Amino acid sequence: MCKTRVLSAYSAGASFEKTMIERRELRSDDVLIEIKFSGICHSDIHSVYGEWGDGIFPMVPGHEIAGIVSAVGPDVTKFGVGDRVGVGCFVDSCGECEYCLKGEEQYCTKGVVQTYNSLDYDGNPTYGGYSQKIVVTERFVVRVPDNLELDVASPLLCAGITTYSPLKHWNVGPGKKVAILGVGGLGHLAIQYAHALGAEVTVLSRSIDKKSEALSFGADHYFATSDTETFKALAGRFDLILNTVSANLDVDAYLSLLRVDGTLVNVGAPGKPDQYNVFSLLMGRRSIAGSLVGGIRETQEMLDFSAEHGIAPKIEVIGADQVTEAYERVLRSDVRYRFVIDVSTL
After folding, report:
1. What DSSP designation does 286 have?
2. 276-310, pLDDT tens digit by residue?
3. Residues whose CB falls within 8 Å of the CB of residue 36, separated by 6 or more in sequence, listed in order
4. How far apart are CA 68 and CA 33, in angstroms?
5. Which secondary-structure segment (H or E) carries 238?
6. Residue 94 burial (10 A CB sphere; 0-12, 13-18, 19+)
7. How many CB atoms neighbour CB 273 within 10 A?
8. What is the per-residue pLDDT across 193-218, written as a single tens digit (0 to 9) for each?
9. 3 state DSSP class of 106
């Protein structure tokens, strides 16, 4: 077994404590990673606070992991000691179902094994990236391109792939008019990806406050949704609206902004169910959809695309002692735009 220092929450809503856990011994296809940086995702907060059902405690969150390979099993072929790598939201899947075979492990019919707050196929709890070391099967490790710094790369393992995957799936590119709803931890990356893919990008945000930043990320247009004239001016405009916010919306109002055959895609997860009038769909053959991150192959594609196009999250690097405060700041929207833990401070 490999002992490692972690940040652990012992019950729902508890403060973090520095403690030790044991990682499994290296299997033949395993990779041991010395974690350098671990991003903080809003889903970490939901999980630690017990807002998404019963959690597995003690809990070590973190699924935006970037580090260096320190050992490999004898059957590992893709990675060697010293390689710069990342681990995202999942650490195993059956590898045999139709979705795994298509490279969409996130939809594994057996049930994908999440990086933390999950049980592996042997029934053992998984522990995430607020940790100095992690052991992961080779299939779920991705390579970080040399021109992406590890601290910047870590949020891409969740926030990056969460926004990149739906844009690719709905064929965003030249000639498409795309709206990004929200300029936050997800939205500021979605703007960059949609722009790099060649779409005409409009940002929709509650106020005008983030206009200059949104334009700097590549937006062509910016509108405040608090202005009721916005919905009149943009009626029937967009092929795709990517909703990155976690608040409940006036769904009918946003559906009215779609062209015929347009789609409202949700990647944010509000706490309560949304409601809409079915005629908002019928009258324009519109769709409401959702998207869950992406598979390992697409995650690697996203990292390579990010490196090629200079796409990076805006981050604030913090020490391990600042994580509880960072959670509180996320809930106040007091971050531009992602926190990243420097694991050397653990």
Report:
1. -
2. 999 999 999 999 999 999 999 999 999 999 999 99
3. 66, 67, 68, 150, 151, 342, 343, 344
4. 5
5. strand 238-243
6. middle
7. 6
8. 999 999 999 999 999 999 999 999 99
9. helix
| Distance, CA of 33 to chain centre | 20
Residues 6+ apart with CB under 8 A from 148: 156, 303, 306, 307, 312
Q: What is the pTM of this model?
A: 0.96
Token output for 207: 């106020």
Whether residue 39 has pLDDT greater than 90: yes
Count the neighbouring beta carbons within 10 Å of the beta carbon of residue 335.
18
Q: Which residue has the tokens 């722009």?
A: 195
Output the pLDDT for position 51. 87
| Residue found by looking up tokens 């945000």 in the block | 205
317 φ, ψ (degrees, to nearest 5): -85, 130
Q: How many CB atoms lie within 10 A of CB 54?
A: 8
Query: Both tokens of residue 171?
Result: 């064929």
| Cα separation, 246 vs 225, whole angstroms | 15
pLDDT range class, residue 270, cuts 50, 70, 90: confident
